[in-house]
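Proteins fold. Shown next:

***
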Amino acid sequence: MATASRALLHAAVGYSDAAPMDDGTDLAVAEGYRVDVYASGLGNIRFLAVTSGGDLFVSRPRTGEVLRLAADHNGDGLPDAQEVVLAGLTRPHGLALRENHLYAAESNAIGRVALDSDGRIQGDYQRLVSGFGDGGNHWTKTIAFGPDGWLYLSSGSTCNVCEESDPQRATIMRMQADGSGLEIYARGLRNSVGFDWTPWDQRLFATDNGRDLLGDNFPPCELNEVVQGGFYGWPYYNADQLDPDFGEKIPQGLPQNRPPAHNFPAHNAPLGIRFLRHQDGPYARSALVALHGSWNRSEPDGYKVVSLHWQQDGSIVQRDFLSNFLQADSLLGRPVDVVEAASGEIFISDDYSGRVYRVHRGEASRTAVNTRAEHDQTDPLRDYSQRDRERLVAMGGSLYERYACAECHEGKGLRPLQGLAERYSAQSLMSFFITPTPPMPQLNLNEAQREALMVYLFAAEK
C-alpha cells in the first residue's frame, strides 16, 4: 500500500485497538523539553482536565466513561493509580473543573459531580442541562469556564456544509455554573472543538475545522478570536472567501463575517488549545494546539502539536512543538487535547494510540511510539460460513450504499478502505461503529447491522 493510502486509512477509521510496541521510533519535541509516555492502553480517549494536585481526568466517549489518572507522587513517571470515576454517560467529551466540581460535556447534556478535598468523586453525578442535539457529523461538546465565571460550550455542525435547522449547532454557547441562563454567544463556527482565553488580556480564541471536499489545500482551518455576538462565516464563508455552494445564499441581516486571527493548513483539524501559564522564555505568550491530522488529503498532513506565539504587533507565529506522529507509511498518533499542570508539566492526549504524553523541561528524550498490532491478525471472518458471509456481505453492502459511505471513503483524495485487519478485530470494528471518530456520523445501527457492515468491509479487502 502506498504511504499516503495507509496513513489515510488509519486516520479515517479512528483509533487503533492495537497496543503500541516499542521499536525505536521517536517523537520530536521542542528544544529544552523532553517527552515521555505517561499512560497507555487507554483506548479512545479525548479531552483532559488537570486538578491543582496534578490528577488528570480523561474522557472516553466510546465507553461512556471518565477516567482519573492519579498524580505521580512516587516519581516513577507514571500515574500512581488509574480508575473509572464516571460511567454510563452519553459520549462524554469536554471536561472542566470549578469550585470542587468536575463538569462533563456529554454529547446531549452537561452534568457535574462533587469532588472531595483530595480531588476524588463524592456523591452522585447530576445533569444540569440536557436536550442538546448530537446527531450528524460533529457530535462532540467541549466546555471550559471563562474568566467571567460562565461555563462556555461548543457544539459543532451536523454536516460538512449546510444551513442548520437547530440554532445551537455550529455555535459557542454559555451558561451559569448551575446550568441556568443558557445563551448563544457566537455563531458560524463549523466545529470549534477547542477554546481558551489569553492569560494576559482574557480574549477568547477557538480553533475551527474548515469544510471538506474542496481540494487538498482549501479551505484553511482556523483560529478565531471569538467575541459575543460574532459571526464566523460558516456555511457561507470559508475564512474570508465566499463558499462555492452557499456563498450566494447569505440571509438578509446576517452579521458581518469575522475572518480568522490565524490560519492552519487545510484539513489539519485543530482540536484542543491551551494557553500556557507556567512557562517562560519563548513560551511566555503562547498557546499549544493539537492538530489531529487530515483524513481527506491525498498527502496526509497535521498529526502534531504546534505552538502559537503572540507577537507585540498582534501577529501570530506558528512552530512545531511535538511532532513526528506521521512517519513514512506509519501513523503513530493523533493528538487531541493539551492541558498544563501548575507544576508546568504539559499533558497531551492521543485518541489513536490511546496514550497520554507528558512534556516537561529537560534534555531531549527518546520516546518510541510504534503502533504495530498485537491482536490476533488471523482472518476476522474465519468463523463465518460461506453462506453467512454472502448474506452479511449483501446486507452490509446495502448499508454502505444507504449511508453514502463512498462519498468520504472512495473519493476526493481519500483512498479505499484497506488494511482494516491490521488495526481491528471483528469485535473492535463493530464497537467503532457505535461511537465513530468525528467527522464520521453516528449511524444508529443495531447489532445485526453493525455485524453486517463489519463483514462487508473485511470481505471487501479480500
Q: What stands out?
A: The chain has two domains: 24-361, 386-460. Helices lie at 3-12, 386-402, 406-409, 426-434, 447-460. Residues 1-6, 17-24, 370-375 have pLDDT under 50 and may be disordered.
